[in-house]
Amino acid sequence: MKFQPLPLLLSLSAISTGVVADEGGGGESDVPHNIHLLALHKSLCDIPSLTTSEASLGDWLATYLESHSFTVEKHLINASSPHRNNIFAYLGHTRSTSTLLTSHFDTVAPYIPYTRHPNGTITGRGTNDAKGSIAAQITAVQELLAAGAIREGDVALLYVVGEESDGAGMVAANGLGLTWNAVVFGEPTENKLSLGHKGGLIFTLEADGKAAHSGYPQLGIDANRHLVEALYTLGGLALPGSELLGETTLNYGLIAGGVAPNVVSAFASASVAVRLAIESARVRSVIDEAMQMRPVRLLYSERGFEPQILDHDVEGESPGLRPLAFEYG
Predict the structure, then answer these.
(1) Where does the signal sequence lie (predicted)?
(2) 256 pairs with which residues across the strands?
């Protein structure tokens, strides 16, 4: 699928790298859209929006878009989170548009204040991931509107919560009941077009043992040893990958076990994240077979997603905007 270029979006998206260089040897740029872009970006970043605490920024963003002639809908992601809303905006009365620009406005912890350094570099929580993308997208639409290049029915904006944890915002967005000819996802991609990204699989290993004084280890069963041996086995597996996305990789993000140095551990566990370069079923079969030989329980999380190969073709593509596959998803 090809869609008409959004040249301004692509030119402004430099901010999504987290680095903005002033023009004219370090002075403030006199390009109006740069001034507006930077001001909007700073406003977004000045409001903390850690995952599950996005309400203040969501309210500000809705008010901002309404004040700039967008029709705005707030969508509650679930009844148990009464202050967490996705923000959906469009022009006039036409909800169904040909193109969607989307990103997320939650961030990981901790909050880090916005700072613009003398060399033009911008730092702070969310400046890159992904408030830079939001600022670039909104500014691009405003500039294209002012130029008469787009009109009602051409583009909508969707900004979601919860991306950094369980993806609850984007899952809830499926309830919009809308489809588009093209979707531009705002994520930090080094100003390159993403042609695909890895999937994700999470599982936990649990090992049971029997507590005993370390002076009498023969009276206990060491759960820590069972877990370590299982992890060592995982580390030696040849997990299937793909030519496009590369290797499937493992990360032992959380490991816990035991109660004291002089006590044989009665329980141990590890949480493992897998970056999938190929469909999860093939990777799970290798892991399942290897863990059958170990005295551990293998528990897969319901969270996860398959690798994605994206349709990334853009007419009039800039030579510098080359496609790239990404390790994350």
Answers:
(1) 1-21
(2) 269
**Residue 152 bears catalytic tag:** no
Q: Which residue of the set 23, 66, 152, 163 is catalytic?
A: 163
pTM of the model: 0.79
Among all chains, which residue has been given the structure tokens 């905007």?
321
- Tell me the C-alpha distance between 326 and 329, whole Å: 7
Do residues 308 and 278 touch, judged by C-beta distance below 8 A?
no
**Cα–Cα distance for residue pair 292/101, rounded to 1 Å:** 45
Is the separation of the CB atoms in 270 and 227 below 8 Å? yes
Cβ atoms of 159 and 49 within 8 Å: the answer is: no
* CA–CA distance, 262 with 282 (Å, rounded to integer): 41
Residue 225 is which amino acid?
R
Q: Tell me the pLDDT tens digit for each residue of 160-187.
A: 999 998 889 999 999 999 999 999 999 9
* CA dist., res. 313 & res. 329, Å (int): 19
Cis peptide before 240 (omega within 30 of 0): no
